[in-house]
Amino acid sequence: MLDFRIMTFLELCNQNSYTKTAQVLNMTQPAVTQHIQHLEREYGAKLFHHYGKKLILTPAGELLRQAARTIAADTQSLKRMMQEGGKKDTQWRFGATLTVGEYVLPPALAWYLKQAEDAHVFMTVENTVTLLSMLQKGEIDFAFVEGYFDKQAYDYTLFLQDDFIAVSAPNYIAPKQSLLFEDAVKLPLVLREEGSGTREIFERVLLEHNMNISHFSLPYQIGNMQAIKYLVQVGCGITFLYRSAVKKELQEGTLTELVIEDFKLQREYNLVTLKDSLFSDRYYEFANLLRGFLKKS
Questions:
Q1: What span, in angstroms and rounded, lies between the C-alpha atoms of 86 and 64?
Q2: CA 210, CA 207: separation in Å to the nearest integer?
Q3: Which residues in the chain come in under a pLDDT of 70?
Q4: Helix, strand, coil shares, percent, the chain, to 5
Q5: CATH classification for the domain delimited by 161-264, as one of 3.30.360.10, 2.60.40.3140, 3.30.750.24, 3.40.190.10
Q6: Under a CB-based contact definition with an 8 Å cutoff, are residues 63 and 43 in contact?
Q7: Which of 97, 161, 86, 149 is nearest to 123 (CA)?
Q8: pLDDT tens digits for 173-197?
């Protein structure tokens, strides 16, 4: 169990205010100050820089926050395992970004659950920003993430790679016509909401071409993958997403891949955990089981 002063420190990191931290923890503001001062004496390092009312973590403070988050999350995992009689591999609590959670993992999870009938799987499907926040709060143990994240702040391992492609309705442009990327931006675009891994990847691609979303003639933002695919299928524009997300539609011919001569992109799905978790090896073993099935199938 974490020292109560460490819990105060973590809450202060979240609230960035001594007053708000005291309110959340139902304690006095001087008590919050005393807890932080005790930790600074204990570790012999300054934890925060004070700029007026603004708090900035020092490098030592950031190191303590990362370690404390991991310990807090591992404590919750350990508690669940002990309540299950010490069984390590019966409960999996994780997150996945939309493409991974809806289109990549389900066949592998179905296979796994048939092999391990006493296992319990709790999967949250959210965008990258939300999942990393949940991971930091200990609400999930690990996450399968598409897109970019701060690789210095987490431990991670490659899960799978996937092609990032452009698709449209059949005959939306002339059959077999190839495009340049500068031609594609003249077409209406249907894309995901801000915070999603797919959106962030596409925005970085645009930056590499000295462009942004506003270069598209009609950019539409839709927070649902099925809705995006439907709008593209009926000719409302084009979209960029992972091949696995449209595998079925490409096979059925309701969507077609656009050939863009100067656009070829492959991106990673990573398994992300808090730094130095005691249970990282356990999470990696689970991911390896799922990956092995997906590669065979």
A1: 29
A2: 5
A3: 1, 84-89, 174-177
A4: 50, 20, 30
A5: 3.40.190.10
A6: no
A7: 97
A8: 866 667 888 888 888 999 988 878 7
- Phi, psi of 45, deg, nearest 5: -150, 145
Ramachandran area for residue 46 (φ above 0: left; ψ -120 to 50: alpha; else beta): beta
Residue type, 2: L
pLDDT score recorded for residue 193 = 84
Name every residue whose Cβ is closer than 8 Å to that of residue 29 and which is 6 or more positions away in sequence. 18, 19, 22
CA distance 111 to 274: 27
Q: In sequence order, what are the residues at sequence separation of 6 or more whose Cβ sits closer than 8 angstroms to the Cβ of residue 252?
A: none
Fold classified for 4-78: Arc Repressor Mutant, subunit A (1.10.10)
How much is the pLDDT for 87? 61
CB of 108 within 8 A of CB of 159? no
